[in-house]
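Technical note accompanying the year-one report. For the benefit of new consortium partners, we illustrate the data format agreed upon in the data management plan: each record pairs a sequence with a structure-token string. No post-processing was applied to the example shown here.
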Amino acid sequence: MVKGPGLYTDIGKKARDLLYRDYQGDHKFTITTYSPTGVAITSSGTKKGDLFLADVNTQLKRNNVTTDIKVDTSSNLSTTIVVDEPAPGLKAIFSFKVPDQRSGKLELQYLHDYAGIATSIGLTANPIVNFSGVVGTNVAAIGTDVSFDTKTGNFTKVNAGINFSNADLIAALTLNDKGDSLNASYYHIVKPLTNTAVGAEVKHSFSTNENTITVGTQHALDPLTTVKARIDNLGKANALIQHEWRPKSLFTISGEVDTKSIDKSAKFGLALALKP
């Protein structure tokens, strides 16, 4: 198990990854190449209906500094600079997007054996300040995540969460949307040898008194092939199969059907990621 409680974003992450990660409703292609100097260039294209989106990302690593520069089809230039371990347990992240002059942001993350802290501030005259903190251990942790808009003087986000975990089970409970929604999640490793796991998530909205329940599972057919499935109480059923046909290169096929409207056409998605 990982030492320390991690960051606030790690609360419930295992269940979220099981239930939502890698499900693809579009057609996506990604290829990564490396130059002799170690520069990684990743080109990706996504077809969403009749719309085609593409971007090119260049990543350069030097010592403890990683720089990512991405250009997309909307003529946006995004830059992220990560400085890892400028001090023990600390990570600094600077990001901005051109031509959005209000996109600049500075973030600091600090990991300790009994705490995890992340704070960020927008690089504008009236920035939004975000703070999240977790205290505890890798077995039990409690944390909060808040954002404050210095222009309006209001809190734009107030969340809190608690996480319990052991070798094969993780449970999390979060209160989100300024106390309007409650989210409970569960992740359980059934058989480690085949990466078989089950998970569930229950969301309750106090304002609408509505519940959303999602359950899912995953299983490795062999060391290179994984299948996943999920269904929710709204009748949406999803499944995928992912095959690693060469190291770090993945081919994923996913589909979705509405079990309450069988007459509707099923949705299919494809994703191909190529790495040398």
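Partners are asked to follow this layout when depositing records. The longest strand covers residues 210-222.
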